[in-house]
C-alpha cells in the first residue's frame, strides 16, 4: 500500500513539473499572420460636420456646386456635385474642392471618393446648403501596422515646386482628347504664379484670383478654393480657364520646359509656357 501511494505521488509530481515547465519556460508562439487590411467605410456628412476613419478626419466645409441631372428629367449624363472638404491625418492637412465624378483622391494612405448625395436633384427646386448630405467612401491604401514613409516623395515634390515657383506660366492652349483645342483670345493675359509655400495666384482677361495647391505622390496636384475679384466682362474666357485649372489633377513638364496640367480621366491637357 505504501508503494502505491509513493507511486501516485511521484506521478503527480512529474505532471506538476511538466505543466509548470510549459507555463514558465516555453515562449508563446508569435503569430506570423500577414498584416491586416482595414475594411473600407462610408461616412455621411452634412455641411459643417466632421467624420473620422482611423486617424483620418474629413470635414464637409461647403457645398460648392450641383450639376446633377434632375431625377424627373432624362439626361445623357448623370452629372456631378462639387464640395469643399478638409482632410487631416496626423500633421498632414489638405483643403480642396472635390468633384464627385473624379477619380478617388489619395491622401495620407487613403483613397476618398464621393458615392452618394442627398436629397436628389429636382428640376426647378433649389436645395439649401444645410439640407445636403454627402456620402464619402474611404478606402485605406496601406495595411494595419505598415509605416507610411512621409518623406519618400519629398525629392520629387521639391523638384516640381522649384520648377513651378519663381516663374509666371502663361496659358497657351487646352487640348482635349477629342482633338478640340481652346486658345486664349487675348494671349499673354491668362497666367499662373506659384509660390514655394503652396500658394497660387492667377490673372485672366477679366479678374484676378488666388488660392492654394498641394502636391501629392506621382505628380498629382490638388487645388484649394479660389478667391476672385468680381468684375463682369462680356465675352470673357475666365470661366473656361479657371474651371480647367481647378479640375486638373496632375502636373508634369515637357522636354521643352512647358508646364502641363492634366484633366481628370486623361480627358485633356492645359498647356502653359514660361513668360
Report the span from N to C terminus. Answer: 110 Å
Radius of gyration: 29 Å
The biggest beta sheet reads: 10 strands, antiparallel
Question: How many helices?
Answer: 3
As residue ranges, the low-confidence spans are 21-37, 143-153
| Percentage beta strand | 35-45%
What is shown here, in short?
The chain has 275 residues and is α+β, with helices and mostly antiparallel strands. The chain is built from three helices and 18 strands. Helix content is 16%, strand content 39%.
Give an overview in words.
The structure is a single chain. With 275 residues, the chain is of the alpha+beta class. It has two domains: 41-140, no CATH class; 154-274, Lipocalin (Beta Barrel). The chain has three helices and 18 strands. The protein has helices at 2-24, 154-164, 238-247, and strands at residues 41-46, 50-53, 56-66, 81-89, 92-99, 105-107, 110-118, 133-140, 168-176, 181-182, 191-194, 199-203, 208-215, 221-223, 227-228, 250-253, 259-262, 268-274. A hairpin with a 4-residue loop joins strand 12 and strand 13. The chain starts with a helix and ends with a strand. The model is unreliable at 21-37 and 143-153 (pLDDT under 50).
Amino acid at each position: 500500500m505504501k508503494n502505491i501511494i509513493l507511486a501516485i505521488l511521484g506521478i503527480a509530481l512529474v505532471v506538476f513539473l511538466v505543466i509548470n515547465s510549459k507555463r514558465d519556460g516555453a515562449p508563446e508562439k508569435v503569430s506570423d499572420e500577414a498584416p491586416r487590411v482595414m475594411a473600407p467605410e462610408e461616412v455621411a456628412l452634412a455641411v459643417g460636420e466632421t467624420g473620422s476613419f482611423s486617424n483620418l478626419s474629413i470635414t464637409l466645409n461647403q457645398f460648392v456646386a450641383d450639376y446633377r441631372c434632375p431625377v424627373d428629367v432624362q439626361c445623357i449624363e448623370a452629372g456631378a456635385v462639387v464640395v469643399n472638404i478638409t482632410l487631416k491625418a496626423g500633421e498632414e492637412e489638405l483643403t480642396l474642392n472635390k468633384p464627385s465624378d473624379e477619380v478617388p483622391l489619395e491622401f495620407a494612405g487613403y483613397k476618398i471618393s464621393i458615392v452618394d448625395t442627398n436629397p436628389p436633384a429636382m428640376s426647378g427646386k433649389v436645395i439649401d446648403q444645410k439640407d445636403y448630405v454627402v456620402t464619402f467612401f474611404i478606402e485605406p491604401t496601406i495595411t494595419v501596422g505598415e509605416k507610411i514613409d512621409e518623406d519618400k516623395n519629398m525629392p520629387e515634390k521639391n523638384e516640381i515646386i522649384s520648377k513651378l515657383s519663381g516663374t509666371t506660366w502663361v496659358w497657351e492652349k487646352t487640348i482635349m482628347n477629342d482633338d478640340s483645342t481652346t486658345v486664349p483670345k487675348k494671349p499673354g493675359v491668362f497666367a499662373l504664379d506659384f509660390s514655394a509655400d503652396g500658394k497660387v495666384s492667377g490673372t485672366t482677361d477679366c479678374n484676378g484670383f488666388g488660392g492654394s495647391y498641394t502636391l501629392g505622390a506621382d505628380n498629382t496636384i490638388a487645388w484649394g478654393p479660389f478667391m476672385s475679384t468680381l468684375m463682369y466682362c462680356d465675352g470673357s474666357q475666365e470661366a473656361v480657364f479657371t474651371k480647367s485649372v481647378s479640375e486638373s489633377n496632375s502636373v508634369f513638364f515637357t522636354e521643352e520646359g512647358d508646364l502641363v496640367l492634366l484633366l481628370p480621366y486623361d480627358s485633356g491637357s492645359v498647356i502653359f509656357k514660361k513668360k
